[in-house]
Design brief:
The structure holds 3 protein chains of 3 kinds.
Chain A lengths: L4 H24 L2 H7 L7 E6 L8 H9 L12 E8 L4 E4 L23 E9 L8 H5 L5 E3 L5 E3 L9 H5 L6 E2 L6 E2 L5 H4 L6 H5 L5 E5 L6 H8 L15 E4 L7
Parallel strand pairs in A: 1-10
Antiparallel strand pairs in A: 1-9, 2-3, 2-4, 5-6, 7-8
Chain B lengths: L16 E5 L11 H26 L5 H25 L8 H4 L6 H34 L6 H13 L8 H34 L12 H37 L13 H32 L4 H11 L1 H21 L5 H23 L11 E5 L8 H5 L2 H21 L8
Antiparallel strand pairs in B: 1-2
Chain C lengths: L6 H20 L4 E3 L8 E3 L1 H7 L8 H5 L3 H8 L8 H5 L18 H8 L41
Antiparallel strand pairs in C: 1-2
The chains are: A alpha+beta, B mainly alpha, C mainly alpha.
Amino acid sequence: MSCTRRDLIKNACKGAAVASLPLSALKMLSPAEVKASVGDDKTRWVFLVDIQKCVGCGFCVKACKNENEIPLNAPVTRTWVERYVVTKDGKSHIDTPKGGRDGYTDGKIHGEEINPDEITKAFFVPKLCNQCEKPACVQVCPVGATYQTRDGVVLVDQSWCIGCGYCIMACPYGVRFFHPEHHVADKCTFCYHRITKGMKTACVDACPFGARQVGNLKDHDDPVTQTIMNQRVGILKDEYGTKPQVYYIGLDERVR
Amino acid sequence: MTDPITNEIVVHGMDWTVKSLFVYPNEFIYWSIQIVMYPYMTGLVAGAFVLSSLYHVFGQKDLKDMARFSLVFSLALLPVAMMPLMMHLQQPFRGINVMFTPHFTSAIAAFGIVFSTYAVIVMSEIWFMYRTYFVDQTIALQGKTGIGNSMKRTLYIILTLGAFETDEQAVAKDKKAVKLLAAIGIPVAGFLHGYAGFIFGSVKANALWMSPLMPVIFIMSAVVSGIALCMLTYIIIMEWKKFQAVLAKGRGDKSVEVIRGAEIDVMNKTSKYLMMFLVAAITLETLDLIFRGYTAMKSWDILRSVMFHEDFTKIFILQYGLGNAVPFALLLMPRMTIKRLVVALILVLFGVFMMRWNVVIGGQAFSLSFEGFMHYHLPIIPHNLETYREGLMGALTVAATPFILFWILNKFIPSLNHSK
Amino acid sequence: MKNHVWRPLLVALAGVALLLTARAIIVPDDFGVNGESFTYNFYRAGSVDDWKGFKVKYRGKEYCRECHEEKVEENLASPHSVIQCENCHGPAVDHPENPELLPTESTRLLCLRCHATLPYPQSNRAEMPSVSPEEHNPDENCVECHNPHNPDLEAM
């Protein structure tokens, strides 16, 4: 194929312009930011919870509400912490006062005092949206207001949601709710506005004990990914086929 | 808006949900009375249409008067089927989005297409049925003076859609079209309500709803409710007309020759169809229950607790007992009277309503954790827009509207004449 | 029209045309299958950017260090180094422009979140240095005696 001088010059200019662009962009961004912003095909966000490390302080719940503008004194939350106390008689005592927003400072569960000598095992379980690989909530949305991004996060288009609540009914994990001010469906977004800038989610930052971590499943050097791949981890309610992407270290069979 | 006692910001569902034991924080009864009303109203639409088609398609000549009436009533019910949804949506003005960007993997998105198709079929069938009547009215109102008459005449002209032919050929075409539409409409009516059942049956997250039987159960009970409502309304109207005729004759009105109320033969025949569908509905629901108890999956403990404790009265006494068994016995008894039929029909309608209630509310009576319960308290007296829309008053508004619409429609497409 | 039978269909088609016209005006152009699957990727593409542009509220300890270096160093030398400043002080947002002062929480309820004794053996809660809320100075705030940045009484 013959190429005129005009074509050569045109193509060379185009090529130079294209080549110079990413270089100049890189100069202004940190490595983490670059990784986050170009990561659509190289990123699959994933979460890791260590049940042993969680002490039930609830700072994650408070931070999430502040960061994501969910009113503090509304009884809905994008993330919460549950308390499980199992006693010698085989009973599970489970509660989540205000979702754990104010932490756990009282041993009473549903008004009942529990004798410490009767406790066989007790622990805290943080929960949030599992950003499922096959989200049932997205499948049932009648108008395409909720969707899955290319890097695996499930989001809600607040300008298009009609507020029918079908997605809320379809979620097996109960992570969705109606936002009391916007009156549309809402849920944990893995702080998409933060992770796409190379930051961590608000709850991961707030946790003093490292019980929560966020990572990229497609990055095999990511310590979160390595834990998921190499250690024994559990997921919630896998019988629904949603393929949840929040993994738990130390998950107990009593967890609901 | 803040709750004055707890100082919490009020979220949707909080006003009528009481939680006990362990329930996830975001769980409330989000689908309340209007979601009970919605399948109930669409069921009435489908059932009324099927009843009408029994005459047109299967040539049940005794049902001719019933057929005309139930078709027009079906049209009156049609816009009302949308009302509960508009009352429920958190963003009602965006409801039209389902027509603009339907996500067809969602059963609710099917609503846009199926409902529109069904509306077109019902309206077309009525048009073919009444076209010659419209033409006659344009002629009859021709000389008349007065703004009311000229407005009415203009309306009839528009309603003819410009087709003024009333010769034998044209009328034959009309009749053929009616028959065709009635036939097509039956599977569409089935689809309209089958998908409503699919909305619930396909929710794998809900242990009570998840069942392949749900669409079929919904269709059967929808037809039951539609037939029952048409029979009941027909009886009430015909008996009222008879009462008026008796009064008129008593006053010496010579034009009154015939005093006829509801024909018992027609009612007997229609009630046989009612019983068939009732048996089908009961059989499927019983099968579902037995299956669940036998297989005893993870959810069985909490479901059993809800069905046999919290909701025992609502399910077994009200729905199966008063709503199914008693009317079935009443319909089976020989020497049917109009009075006994009316009681049976009211109980059937009540039974179908309780079925919708027990599915929708019952499915939200237990937590996703299977370790807690939610109790539904229907708002009676509304204290804000939300407790009106999703409360008793909102439900009554929806229930009353088809009758108002029918009254208006009947002025232009009269459907209560005895055929000659 | 010779055959009047088609009239209702024409009316229906007119309705559909009206709907499609309205759709062309109202629905944004970037609405569609933005990905591999109609099931999971049917949405308005601009929504992703809406979410990316959401305001960040929590800035992190390094942001606090820019002005409050001494306090941060004090904190980093103590067991409380694991706690974010903003956990107690509230999100920085655009502090010091907005808000000028942070809504710091300093009641004992905040400290009890971690330090109220709860006998839960299968979690690190049992390992926390803790007190019984009813017995340990129940009417006082913890900060009366303990410096929250470095709570070790000996270090004070």
